[in-house]
Design a protein that fits this description.
Length: 347
């Protein structure tokens, strides 16, 4: 009986505790590790209750404290994103060398770009690495800056060509003297999204043409991988395709003549005949000749002439050929296979 009583009392107390437990709601989600450290430190200092979920990227607090704590976090400026931004200059230390100031500026610029790019819907986190050469007094000796962008994409999301171009333009316009052909973009899975060598093939393309090029390359890559999966195994093959496409608009006009295919277009025919008499006696008359008693010989003459003019029409064929846009001029294909393979011996 005593044991049963203890069990009932324990269950009753557990039910009371369960009913009185606070209902936790999301304070912030998808936080960077730096933000999580700052916010949890602030909550610990205020002795606020909280829980972490989703591998520490989501902070939950009691429901009745959500809005108050959000205001407090905003006042403290605890959410600044990954890396350090221009707030690094809020506290300028006296006696900093030019080298330290340059490094701080580079860190701040990298952090600000990373925060901006992380706002893209498909991007969870972005890290920027800049190389900012020292300015030279001589133009011919001045080295060009460069940038490398590493992106961690949201699970199940991917960047399209327009978003990649937006990142390229954003970085190139944010760094003084940075050309787009000195920018490289990759994701955390090792997939190269943009490299300088791709810029020549993308230069001058419209958004529609660029999307067509990327879609074509991705479709060919997928078909190659699907073809090799049954033999090599899924996840052990990576195919990369670079398509050189011709988007120039060409119109070819041809006129072809067939000399054997002649057709009479018009014909003109004329006939002419003449008839008359001629004196058969030749020579000059005497000076005192009066013409009396002329009995010279006469002959009858006649003639005819015929002419014909025929105009022919030569068979002519006209063609106007409009070349299709996006014809494949060249395909470059690379396939990486996981594992070591040996050629089988022929029987």
């Amino acid at each position: 009986i005593v044991g049963m009583t203890v069990v009932v009392v324990g269950a009753f107390l557990a039910m009371i505790l369960w009913l009185n437990r606070p209902d936790y709601k999301v304070l912030y989600s998808k936080l960077q590790s730096e933000d999580v450290i700052r916010i949890t430190g602030m909550l610990d200092a205020s002795k606020e209750k909280y829980k972490l979920e989703n591998e520490g990227t989501t902070i939950l607090v009691p429901e009745e404290r959500v809005y108050d704590l959000r205001l407090k976090v905003a006042e403290e400026g605890a959410i600044v994103g990954s890396g350090v931004g221009f707030e690094i200059f809020d506290e300028v230390k006296v006696g900093q060398t030019e080298f330290v100031q340059k490094i701080n500026f580079q860190r701040a610029l990298q952090g600000e770009l990373g925060r901006t790019i992380s706002e893209f819907p498909a991007i969870e986190k972005a890290r920027i690495h800049l190389v900012l050469p020292k300015k030279s007094l001589f133009i011919e000796e001045q080295q060009q800056p460069s940038a490398s962008v590493v992106l961690k994409l949201v699970e199940g999301k991917k960047l399209d060509a327009k978003e990649v171009q937006a990142i390229i333009n954003l970085v190139s316009m944010s760094v003084e003297g940075l050309d787009r052909d000195r920018i490289s973009i990759a994701d955390t899975r090792g997939k190269l999204l943009f490299s300088p060598k791709d810029d020549t093939s993308l230069e001058g393309l419209t958004t529609t043409q660029l999307e067509y090029k990327v879609t074509l390359q991705q479709n060919l890559e997928r078909r190659i991988e699907e073809m090799l999966f049954p033999v090599i195994g899924p996840g052990r093959v990576i195919a990369k395709v670079n398509a050189d496409l011709d988007f120039s608009h060409k119109t070819i006009h041809k006129e072809m003549y067939d000399p054997e295919g002649q057709v009479v277009r018009s014909e003109q025919r004329s006939e002419e005949s003449t008839r008359g008499q001629a004196n058969l006696e030749a020579g000059s008359p005497e000076p005192n000749f009066r013409g009396d008693g002329l009995t010279g010989g006469l002959s009858q003459q006649q003639g005819s002439r015929e002419s014909r003019t025929t105009n022919y029409e030569i068979t002519k064929e006209e063609q106007e050929i409009v070349a299709s846009l996006g014809d494949i001029k060249r395909l470059s294909v690379a396939v990486i296979v996981d594992g070591t393979y040996e050629a089988s011996e022929e029987p």
